[in-house]
Amino acid sequence: MSDGAVAALVTRPSRRSTHSVTLEDVARHAQVSPQTVSRSIRSPQLVSEFTLERVRNSISETGYVPNLAASNLASNRSMTVAAIIPAVSASVFADALQGLEEVLAPEGYQLFIGSTSYRPGHEEELVRAFLGRRPDGIFIVGTDHSPNTGHLLRESKVPVVEAWDLTDAPIDSVVGFSNSAAIRALVEFARDRGYRHPTFAGSFQTGDFRALARRASFEESVDALFPGEPVRVVDSGTATVDYDTGRRLLTETRAAHPETDVLMFASDVFAAGAVLECARAGISVPGDIAVTGFGDFEIGRHLVPTLTTVAVPNRQIGTAAGELLLARMTGGTRETAEIDLGFSVVARESA
Amino acid sequence: MSDGAVAALVTRPSRRSTHSVTLEDVARHAQVSPQTVSRSIRSPQLVSEFTLERVRNSISETGYVPNLAASNLASNRSMTVAAIIPAVSASVFADALQGLEEVLAPEGYQLFIGSTSYRPGHEEELVRAFLGRRPDGIFIVGTDHSPNTGHLLRESKVPVVEAWDLTDAPIDSVVGFSNSAAIRALVEFARDRGYRHPTFAGSFQTGDFRALARRASFEESVDALFPGEPVRVVDSGTATVDYDTGRRLLTETRAAHPETDVLMFASDVFAAGAVLECARAGISVPGDIAVTGFGDFEIGRHLVPTLTTVAVPNRQIGTAAGELLLARMTGGTRETAEIDLGFSVVARESA
Question: What residues of chain A lie within 8 A of the CB of B113, using their CB?
Fold first, then answer.
């Protein structure tokens, strides 16, 4: 659009929520019928390339914005996907949202996001609010929901992808990895490296069911793989997942369980805080105490020493869920799916 | 809801996008008229507390979900806010989204998000797609937009908050801080600490206008505050903002400009990568080279040495923008505003 055209348009009066440029304006500009403009927007495959080009140019020149809310209500599709995550600012979920967005946006879908702040009651409220907006698909972190939330999602008949864990009773489809198996593999790794006194540390009272699954798996794995060894867990309660909490968990572990030779954290963020504290305090890692994390954040590759951890497919969870939802929403398949993206133990210098 | 009620409801047949539980079902369950149910949802202040409680219980028991799309079309309000950000997974924007969500969600607004991937052409597409969904408000990162994007936003008459920088010509309201003034303050700080050969390093070809503003401010500030000193900038081009790029920028700076006594990074992420590389390579910070960052990420407080940086109000940008939008959307005020949240130089061990 030329600057002249912009200047001409910005002086045109317009009302709130009622865009001044109408379908009829576009039709007049393109010298076609309003029906042709409408058809070009809704069913471009039915319109000749020549006409489509004219209409596209006129839409651009006039600044016309079709009212998708009205159009979607007529077509019974909202072209939206709701994403329900525990926290917007946690980078693991942000990575998945980015993956989801990259798959859905090119197909014309927009993402609605909402965060539960790890409160199950809030999850139900959010699900209700989102369903009221008739999304074409739903992405939800976790496989543990209240009976009401599960019921609302099932009853809605909207394609749903649960993510970040696996379950025997999915609402619909599920994309993730086994948090239990990942911790079991890490405990096995520690035993094979010759460690004898493992301790697990994290924040386990925050409503994060995946953290609880990791803790339960640690307890079972120690019972199975370290016969006779007590199960040691250091719990920071509801503390946030940050470097400060990691430092604190290190200090508490050394005070409560000085025999610990490998300290296994429920997140790389805790582990990084602990490794940096060790550097400052002159504690040798892994000489005095070995450290492992969970998540394979970029920081782990740069710490001194580099961090042994479990790599989990955050971004791929988003892209796989996006592709699954797309297939369901566009009628390509009616099948539900369980996609196990796996994990891997990444051995580096810290353990 | 009891488990029995759930079991009864999940066996009821329902169709895609047409929820089986209707307003009439709720009315029958509550033994009131459909009009009363409708009024309870739209105008609860007009309904007695006793009736409201009955209707609420029946909504919960039946699992009824009102169709907000139809209701919003009737009321000309969508109860949605669009957020247009450069990248979902960058933590600074995720922090602002979290702030925005915390303010808007309790008032019943849902966030639509879209990311431009720092491509101006994509920004216009996104704005067009979002406007088609008739949001009640728009949050957009940055103050540099294409003429078409600016025109579409102005013409829409929807309240808009631009964020993360300040501008003399806002579309509507703006919430941020001066990137230029922040870098100027940091260069002054370096001069006052006695450094003589500053170098600035970052990724400046990614479409990030704020990074370019910081670079331009560095160049002007060195001219003004270090007379006779050449302006040294190390540019990683389009490299992503991560620890690896920070390491690489450190190596390139030491090769190209060995006289550098203070290396000023455009982001804490680069600075953290460089400080960790120095720890590994046995380079003393600040003895051999001082380092500063930008953004005050949590990692900076835990690095050895801790990082000198500029604290900027990421989360507050989200909450302030949310409050501003709320006031505009609910008709509380028609005033546009410019909110400068400021910044502060945080002096720590690295410079």
Answer: 97, 101, 111-113
